[in-house]
TrEMBL record:
The chain crosses the membrane at residues 13-33, 40-63, 127-151. It comes from Nocardiopsis terrae. It comes from the Bacteria. Residues 493-533 are annotated as: Disordered. This is Double-GTPase 2 domain-containing protein. The keyword Metal-binding does not apply.
Length: 533
């Protein structure tokens, strides 16, 4: 074939063949249509139109096949190099509305352009339909995100749930959560780019996105300090209570007493339960009954120990309350620079000033020599309770002002401890209303006057943080406990509600709780002082 290729040889025969066949075909048409040129032309035009239509249909089918294969590879097989890998800051796969929908549309368009060249313009209707579907999906998905967040946030506000870290004292909108399979930390699991009702960790574990859907049961961490929070924040309303006072005033013993009173009250109520919400609380309050035995001293909080809230889960019927009690060492209230570190003061609405009456010179000097010898080992070394009060008051005002809150909405309990030790002395407050005793015997008129001016509500209590051998706490603890729980539902105040009063301890104040309950002879509630609003 003289070195010619088969294709070249075929073209050598094809061109002469067409030159012969086309005129012959036209002549044959002339014979068929009786030599009428108009009919021949009409037939040729019709034939060309049909052939062109068939060619276009075939070409469009081929282009559509290219588009379908691109969609299949990208959407169904996940072959999309445009999709970025999730970063370590949020180790969860993207929801389709969180980026993949746009990335897939762009990748399909790119593959169509490469595979069809200039004919890609014929597939613009296909891409337009896909874009409309993507926009529709994004519209309802992001609407669902907004609705779910609003409903979840609204329910949290309705239930008055505000989450506070017991370690760094920061409020959080939502806790971070740890995957129970791989340990990766998800900083914000709420509906968003990573999922609507559930999100998928990079290890494949499916996680709920809302506290209402079970996210509270996941391992929670504080998003600010990264510390674990065993108490399952967001599951129940939190009631933070801040105890403060001088070194050795009895704050730690009072904390044990409140826990013992809660346990005792819950034991006598069907459907009620009190339990430590984390291991640290369980360890620190594990032996409250033993620590509160008459004559036993409770060691004070170590000065160097950073304050950390004790978390107690209180269940009453269908309601659950998380009681957080903050007990910092008295040394934290000596200097402004140290008190400023207690940022939980600005997140708390209930405060308890703990005062050791034996440390007040007016009380100590009024005791007999024998009484002083007997009680010398119980006396703390903070003679002026006004100092820690003013220190904390100033810091609370500063933190409240920074957050735009008013101190008039806060409550203060002035708790006089060691009521059981004062029983039987010449200064026993058994038959004197608590506030009157504090004013006349302790000489704390200025402190109470300042408290009444600074806080929205002030109560005065005389307590004895002891339990009887049978485990019954002093009634004064129940009275104080009821006051602490007043802002909550009736189910919780009912735990410390009126009922059969346990017998008074031998040698103790007959009922120190009634001292706070008798500001006037005919008054049945605790002594209340506060600004008229």
């Amino acid at each position: 074939m003289n070195g010619h290729s088969p294709a070249s040889a075929a073209s050598d025969f094809l061109v002469p063949g067409l030159i012969v066949l086309v005129p012959g075909f036209v002549v044959a048409l002339g014979v068929v249509f009786g030599g009428d040129p108009a009919k021949v032309l009409a037939f040729l035009l019709s034939t060309l139109t049909v052939a062109a239509s068939l060619a276009l249909a075939f070409g469009f089918a081929v282009l559509t096949r290219v588009y379908v294969r691109a969609v299949q590879a990208v959407l169904f097989h996940g072959d999309n190099p445009r999709a970025p890998e999730p970063g370590p800051e949020d180790p969860a796969e993207f929801g389709y509305h969180g980026g993949p929908a746009w990335w897939d549309l762009a990748e399909v368009g790119s593959r169509v352009a490469v595979g069809t060249g200039p004919f890609a313009v014929l597939l613009l209707p296909h891409l337009a339909v896909q874009a409309v579907l993507v926009l529709t999906h994004l519209a309802w998905a992001w609407t669902a995100v907004a609705v779910l967040r609003l409903v979840d946030g609204g329910l949290l506000r309705y239930r008055r749930i505000r989450m506070l870290c017991p370690r760094c004292f920061e409020h959080m909108t939502y806790p971070s959560h740890e995957c129970d399979r791989c340990g990766r930390v998800h900083r914000d699991v709420r509906p968003g780019r990573r999922g609507l009702l559930r999100r998928r960790c990079l290890c494949g574990r499916s996680m709920p996105t809302l506290l209402l859907l079970g996210a509270a049961g996941l391992g929670a961490l504080c998003p600010h300090c990264g510390q674990g929070m065993e108490h399952r924040p967001g599951e129940a309303r939190e009631l933070p209570v801040a105890l403060f006072g001088g070194t050795g005033a009895g704050k730690t013993r009072l904390t044990h007493g409140l826990y013992a009173a809660l346990e005792h009250a819950a034991a006598g109520r069907p459907g009620a339960r009190v339990e430590p919400a984390d291991e640290d609380t369980r360890h620190r309050l594990g032996e409250s009954a033993l620590a509160l035995s008459p004559g036993r001293r409770v060691p004070p909080t170590q000065p160097g120990r950073r304050a950390r809230g004790l978390a107690l889960r209180v269940t009453a019927g269908t309601r659950t309350l998380l009681l957080q009690v903050y007990d910092a060492a008295g040394e934290w209230f000596d200097r402004t620079d140290r008190t400023e570190e207690l940022t939980y003061l600005g997140r708390t609405g209930t405060f308890v000033l703990v005062v050791d009456p034996l440390s007040v010179p007016a009380v100590w000097n009024a005791l007999g020599a024998g009484e002083q010898r007997r009680l010398a080992g119980e006396r703390s070394l903070t003679p002026d309770p006004e100092r820690p009060y003013m220190q904390v008051r100033d810091e609370v005002q500063r933190q409240y002002l920074a957050s735009g809150r008013g101190l008039w909405r806060s409550r203060l309990a002035v708790v006089i401890t060691r009521g059981d030790l004062l029983a039987g002395t010449s200064l026993a407050p058994a038959d004197v209303p608590a506030e009157r005793w504090v004013r006349e015997v302790m000489g704390l008129n200025n402190l109470l006057r300042a408290a009444r001016s600074d806080f929205g509500s002030v109560e005065v209590f005389v307590t004895g943080a002891v339990v009887a051998p049978g485990g019954d706490p002093d009634p004064s603890l129940t009275t104080l406990l009821r006051w602490l729980l007043v802002p909550e539902a009736e189910q919780f105040t009912g735990l410390a509600g009126p009922g059969p009063a346990p017998p008074p301890l031998p040698g103790s104040v007959p009922n120190p709780g009634t001292h706070a309950a008798r500001a006037e002879p005919a008054q049945t509630g605790p002594t209340r002082t506060g600004r008229a609003r």
